[in-house]
Amino acid sequence: MVSENTEEYLEAIWVLEEKGQKIRIIDLADHLNIKPPSVLEKLKKLEEEKLVTYNKNEGIKFTKKGEMGGKMVIRAHRILESLFAYLRIEEDDMEKLSCACEHISKGTVNKICTFLNHPETCPHGKKIPRGECCKNI
Ligand SMILES: [Zn+2]
Ligand SMILES: [Zn+2]
Global pTM? Predict the structure, then answer.
């Protein structure tokens, strides 16, 4: 099981990767609002856990395992946003709630996804990675 802190990193890397640019330490530090030396330290741990690779030329990249982890967190975040939008929860609370709840289990995310009829994008128009529940539709 990955720690919540690790999940925050995986989520941030996913979001930065979506932009299609090389991810530098400074980009991740800015995004997470954490000082670059702390980010570098954490990256070493993520590399040990084989979740990411990092070198100056390539920047930060997901391994297959890291990408799967990032996908799960992002999916939970965006499915929850969709649920909160459905419930007409205000934007401000939406962000706070999604951050607090995104560590819920995959099974719960799939149940919400099914309830919402498997939305393809979040209320911000960002792509929601597909889950097992979205197959056969
Ligand atoms: Zn969103
Ligand atoms: Zn689904």
Answer: 0.86
Structural domain spans, the chain: 4-67, 76-126
pLDDT digits (tens, 9 = 90+) for 64-115: 999 999 999 999 999 999 999 999 999 888 878 877 777 788 999 999 999 9
CATH architecture type of domain 4-67: Orthogonal Bundle (1.10)
Find, among 74, 81, 68, 80, the residue nearest to 108 by Cα: 80
What's the token pair of residue 127?
């792509």
With a pLDDT cut of 90, the percent of the chain lying above it is 79
CA–centroid distance, 102 to ligand 2, in Å, is: 16
Ligand with minimal distance to 113 CA: 2
By the CB criterion, residues less than 5 angstroms from ion ligand 1 are 81, 122, 124, 126
What is the C-alpha to C-alpha distance for residues 51 and 125, in angstroms, rounded to an integer? 27
Compute, in angstroms, the gap from residue 119 CA to the centroid of ligand 2. 7
